[in-house]
Amino acid sequence: MQELVNRPSVCEQSREICPIKIVSKLISGKWKIPILWYLSQEKRRFSELQRLMPGASKGVLSKQLNELINDHLIEKIVYDQTPPKVEYSLSKTGESFTSVLDVLKDWGEEYIKEYQQIKP
């Protein structure tokens, strides 16, 4: 058993890019999965996202939105109007991630049923 734990992953052995590490990097950050989840429902303005995630500071939320934009998972839509209007939405790549979000949601619901029931 110990030999399996210490064995390098297939990706490390072949020196290829590991897909799991890439996904982990893309969604690492406390608010990235919730951001993606809320944007999978509809376009949102920054203030809406802040209301939906009251524990996220303005700076952290802004940083994680920018990282998601740079990683091509979301898009920032700036409307040419006064006052300025900005919305965030999933990109085409981000939309392809919604099936993963659905699986995470379903798994989370099952976990809650099994382990998070209120004890008398």
UniProtKB/TrEMBL annotation:
<keyword id="KW-0238">DNA-binding</keyword>
<feature type="domain" description="HTH hxlR-type">
    <location>
        <begin position="18"/>
        <end position="116"/>
    </location>
</feature>
<protein>
    <submittedName>
        <fullName>Helix-turn-helix transcriptional regulator</fullName>
    </submittedName>
</protein>
<keyword id="KW-0804">Transcription</keyword>
<keyword id="KW-0805">Transcription regulation</keyword>
<dbReference type="Pfam" id="PF01638">
    <property type="entry name" value="HxlR"/>
</dbReference>
<dbReference type="InterPro" id="IPR002577">
    <property type="entry name" value="HTH_HxlR"/>
</dbReference>
